[in-house]
Amino acid sequence: MGLYTVILAAGLGTRMKSSTSKVLHTINGKPIISYVFEAARALKPLQIVVVIGPESNGIQEALRDERVTFAVQKEPKGTADALRTASRKLVGLKTGKGTVLILSGDTPLVNPLTLQQLVTVHKRKRESLSVLSFIAGGDHAYGRIVRDGDNLTSIVEDKDATEEQKTISEVNSGIYAMESSILALLREVNMNRQKGEYYLTDIVGIAARRGYRVGSHVLGYETELTGINTRRELCMAGLYLRDRIVSKWFDKGVSFIDPESVMIDPDATIGMDTVIYPNVFIEGKSMIGSNCKIYPNTRVIDSTIGDNVIIKDSSVIESSNIQDRAEVGPFAHLRPGSIIGVSAKIGNFVEIKKSVIGNGTKASHLSYLGDAEIGDHVNIGAGTITCNYDGLNKYKTVIEEGVFVGSDTQLVAPVKVGKGAYIGAGSTITKDVPPMALAVSRTSQKNIEKWAEGKSDGKDKHKTK
Ligand code: UD1
Ligand code: MG
Fold first, then answer.
1. Is the pLDDT of residue 298 over 90?
2. Pocket flag, ligand 1, residue 142 (CB < 6 Å)
3. Which residues are CB-neighbours of 229 under 8 A, at least 6 positions away?
4. Which of 68, 144, 350, 434 is 20 to 30 Å from 290 by CA-CA measure?
5. Is 51 in the pocket of ligand 1 (CB under 6 A)?
6. Alpha carbon distance 425, 445 (integer Å)
């Protein structure tokens, strides 16, 4: 019999106080719903149904590359109503039997192994309904697991719990494994008067009274089963995930100087012997090679960095590729589409956009290089600017291998500087430069002898009034 998965994600998330759907809030750059979906996918179910509200385009967008069925819950009438909405879309179950794993869309840190354990216990004990529970500490509002002796009898929501029930530390994670036969009992769930919702938790009591085998199993930890209902919980989940990710990279041979100040997104990778300094953010699907040094206050977004690369302090690297042994920063900005060649050097206050920088090429200070194709072993002098934009269109600058660009040069694109050419400092280059030529466009210097004499008696010459 196959496994089916339902993810409940149509709630309003009012406690978040946000105009964005709760499950679209991000942890380390990734929406909550994507974490839950990936955990569900790891169990390879036959079908995954995600219950969404009528205005949930964002969720569909976040899962656009996935094999998923959406079920629209017209009004957020509670978790039982949400599951009933999903059950109509479980195509395989219309005729046959199966096990349905129900996940809460707001529980993103759940480990797939814990889910697998739940399904295994559920089958081994031949239960019709199994609840994944955990032991909660501190103040919380989780549903309490109520037992009579060893037997699970019901789940009581925090709002409805007596003072005595509130002392129960075993709580409901909102994750369940149930046989398809249990879905039929959803019709019997009554509306909770306090909240005007149909609680899925009520199905436990109904099933128990009807003599179905029900059980609850403490399998995971609070840290992975935390439901995110508020901004504080969102932040705490982010911090927990950060520790988990940093630990993983410690184990793989990455050094962190101050792990509490860094953020590594879950899909980013880092090579062995790389050292990550404080306040470094490695975001999206970035790939950092081995033996690199990423100095403080740097942000790397969706970029690939080779081996033995040094990124000096306060640099921003966006959708770019930095090849082996290159050096970037401090205070460099690589905008999307920049490719920095092997052993190239990009120094302070250099901005690069959609440009290829050749192997061994240096742009060490104060430059803007946009839409440029720069060959190997080129020297870009301080203050060089590619004038790539005429207010309407962008144009390309080509600088071939071995060119020397003197300081304070403007290259008015489209323009090409041939192999081995030199450009004199302070030039504005508007025409192509042939290979091996020297181009100078500034006016030649004129010295007016003794010009300053007699302007003052020589004392406090430059003093302003
Ligand atoms: C729920 C459980 C509680 C459990 C806790 C674990 C119920 C009644 N209570 O409480 O016992 O301890 O999770 O985190 O189930 N949703 C819908 N449609 C709705 C309402 C909710 O799809 O009409 C979705 C939400 O988007 C969310 C999930 O169901 O992803 C759980 O809803 P939420 O409101 O967060 O329930 P809790 O109060 O946290
Ligand atoms: Mg919740």
1. yes
2. yes
3. 13, 15, 16, 22, 106, 141
4. 350
5. yes
6. 13
Residues with Cβ < 8 Å from 450, sequence gap 6 or more? none
The burial of 355, by beta-carbon neighbours within 10 Å (0-12 exposed, 13-18 middle, 19 or more buried), is given as buried
* DSSP string for 63-93: TTTS--EEEE-SS---HHHHHHHHHTT-GGG
- In this prediction, residue 96 carries a pLDDT of 76
- State in words which class domain 251-439 has: mainly beta
| Atom of ligand 1 at shortest range from CA of 142 | 12
> Per-domain residue ranges for the chain?
2-225, 251-439
Other Cβ atoms closer than 10 A to 209: 12
Q: Tell me if residue 123 falls in helix, strand or coil.
A: helix
Out of 54-58, 64-68, 74-78, 418-422, least confident range: 54-58
| CA distances for 106 relative to 123, 174, 281, 323, 330, angstroms | 25, 9, 25, 39, 40
142 touches 227 (CB < 8 A): yes
Ligand 1 pocket, residue 199 CB under 6 Å: yes
* Assigned token pair, 51: 């219950």
Q: Whose CA is nearest to atom 12 of ligand 1?
A: 142
C-alpha to C-alpha distance for 181 and 192, rounded to whole angstroms:
23
Residue 456 confidence (pLDDT) above 80: no
Query: Strands 316-318 and 397-399: what pairing?
Result: unpaired
Annotated catalytic, 25? no
pTM: 0.88
Q: Is the C-beta atom of 87 inside 6 A of ligand 1?
A: no
Per-residue pLDDT tens for 231-255?
Answer: 999 999 999 999 999 999 999 999 9
Q: Which CATH architecture has domain 2-225?
A: Alpha-Beta Complex (3.90)
* Structure tokens given for 364: 């060490």
pLDDT surpasses 60 at 62: yes
C-alpha Rg value of the chain to the nearest Å: 31
Pocket test for ligand 1, best of 49, 79, 139 (most atoms within 8 A of CB): 79
The confidence band for 193, taking pLDDT boundaries of 50, 70 and 90, is confident
